[in-house]
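Hey, I'm writing a tutorial for new members on how sequence and structure tokens pair up, and I'd like a real worked example in the thread rather than a made-up one. If someone can provide the structure for the chain below, I'll link this post from the tutorial.
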Amino acid sequence: MYKIFVAILIILTTSSLEAKQKQKTSPRETLKLLNEIKEDAIVFGKGRKEIHSFIDPKCSMSQRYLQFIFKKKRKLFKRYTIYLYLYELKRKNSGNMIRNIFDSDYPETLLKSIMVNNYIPFEEIEEELDDDDIEERVFRIEEVAEQIGVYKRPYIITNGRGK
């Protein structure tokens, strides 16, 4: 199972057309930064090993990544705790969607509905919000992502190393 997961990570990371960039922080620094924003993540699974991923709900590669995770959820959710940080790709213009997912009573369900089931309840995700708590959450994730050097979606971090 682990080999399958590693294979999909390799496929996702090598299929990016963007230039290869290096992570700006050491693995130790990266883990420290991620610890500061764990509460801002949408979390799936209860495993001992952690996977941290920066995703954009409108990014097709992020959608494929989440679809894979849910296809293999029985095994993955036992082995891993998967932290998903919603981080906008500016060209996708997903800021309102991200804020509305965070504002939802059931963000995990809404995220899965959008990214895995391709169901987009426009009335729930396109409303412009003015909520300071959500803005702070989005800001914290953006700040950490920039410090780490997140340059694509999905950006997957295991053991402090990004791919």
